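Replying to the earlier thread about multi-chain prediction with a worked example.

Input:
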Amino acid sequence: MALLRTRARRRDRAVRDQPPRRERRGDAPSDGTEPRPPIVELRDATVVYPGGHVGVERVSFALQRGEFAFVVGPTGCGKSTLIKMLIREVEPASGEVRIAGRDINRLPNGRLPHLRRRIGTVFQDFKLLPNRSVYDNVAYALQVTGGGRRDIGRKVPEILRLVGLQGKVHSYPDQLSGGEQQRVSIARAFVNHPPLLLADEPTGNIDPETSIGIMQLLYRINRTGTTVFVATHDREMVDKMRRRVMALDEGRLVRDEATAGYADESTSEFALRVRAEMGVGEGHTNGEPGEPLDDEPGEPDRPRAGS
Ligand SMILES: Nc1ncnc2c1ncn2[C@@H]1O[C@H](COP(=O)(O)OP(=O)(O)O)[C@@H](O)[C@H]1O
Ligand SMILES: [Mg+2]
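Result:
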């Protein structure tokens, strides 16, 4: 938060005499003169693993605020390496990784938790705590980032409603379907409303119908202004999403295409279209949100704390 706040302050000084701009974080650039740096920028980044194996090689691209982009490619092409580089779980041997204009590999270690708090991450295997309830899995994410009790009591029920799990608050991970477990992990990643959400094979372990619900949820999160970056080998899903697609091949970025999309689609229109295009029927609600899908979380009414 402070990182962006500091940026905002600096920016405010720089543009003091210019006409006012919307300052809401995560906003897409409103015009061609936008001075904010991309939320993600890689410059010639190369990762070499111990033993000399190259994870990714000279990868350069930028993600603008508010974008929804995919990285695709076969197993071993470097998708996870790319995602891990963005949270500094792996560091490039050469090149730069910039988040919101900052070279994260120059950050002191003490700033890492702060960086990671600003980036939500979702994994294929969910990484839920098996001995904690749905509520506690999400609350834990807030506790470790220093959230107070009141904050937690307000945010957890709110996010669980957003992902459609308000009825499963007291369930344990092994009592949930794969799609529901993934919803918990998305809730946990998004509970701090980070400006950037990364998802590494988020539909890798779930069936096609449930996958649509998960993509719909990521799409919905994107529509709140959060930049969403998804690694996947699910080509069919990616084609249907009609979003920007980058392709890796043996660690190299070999394609970067901004597909003409349906930028104004609502989340429910999106789900209807993708279902129809994938030939998946309706009426199966497993993993679907239990409330009508609006496009913004808006001002949900506050469920009781600790529920
Ligand atoms: N910790 C590691 N040590 C050595 N090599 C690794 C490590 N992690 C990944 N690799 C190698 O780097 C390449 C890219 O891996 P990865 O990013 O996991 O690909 P993907 O996610 O696309 O399947 C692969 O050849 C893989 O074997
Ligand atoms: Mg991977």
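Residues 208-223 form the longest helix (16 residues).

Feel free to reuse this layout for your own posts.
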